Amino acid sequence: MSTSNGTAFRIRMLASFLRLPLFGWSLALPVLGILTASGSVPARAAFAVAMALPFQIVLGVVNDLADMELDRGDPRKAGRPLVSGLIRPSTAIRLVVGAVVVAIACDPIALGLSLERSALLVVALAATAVYNVYGKRTPIPPVMDLFQGIGAGAFAAYGAAAAGHPTGRTLLVALSVVVFILFINGVHAGLRDLTSDFAHGARTTPIALGARPTASGSPYIPRRLILYAWSLQCVLAILAGSQFAATCWPAGLRSSRPRCS
Known about the structure:
Blueprint: H1 3-17, H2 23-36, H3 42-50, H4 52-66, H5 68-71, H6 81-84, H7 89-111, H8 115-134, H9 141-163, H10 168-192, H11 194-199, H12 205-208, H13 223-253
């Protein structure tokens, strides 16, 4: 293997290990919170965005640690560094612990003491880790989906608390993130991994609601799962409408024409 090929391979493995294709999501969460904050300070906002790195490590690496045995049976995931043995679990654990300690320690050093902000950061990291460890190992999978949603929603709220002051719109955004995770993880991702999860006895929301793989390759999707998915979509639509109203109506009251600018 040439030097350039070896470097490219290491970069690909690092990107896979840290789940870098998902890093945009980790970055988007604090940014969403920052956009809802009042009195936002650019330097503080930049720090909040930087905290996406430790959040990303917990989001991706803990998931691979918890699901190594399950992922070995999935051809799409068997080549990941932890699953294939290229990176030792002990190394991954040290990275996760270090990222969490640094994040929790650096927040009060950089931004000052704040119980609210520290609590949001701890909840974001802890709830995400709990989902990754127990997400496919509980009799009631939607509860674990909720934990992941709470982790993501708390991290969005952390962005607002770090940059300035959370507002009512911060709460609406955080709730929207929670419901979005319930849908995207509990429905979309669960159906994507249905064959592998079912074969290895995993407990996910689609499986708990009766979804099953079939010989044709197309999953059997029961009405209960369809109703669950549409219910979440309706809640998301209500939250989006509430966010629109909270943003636009006050501006409309101050002028002759409603506007959102």
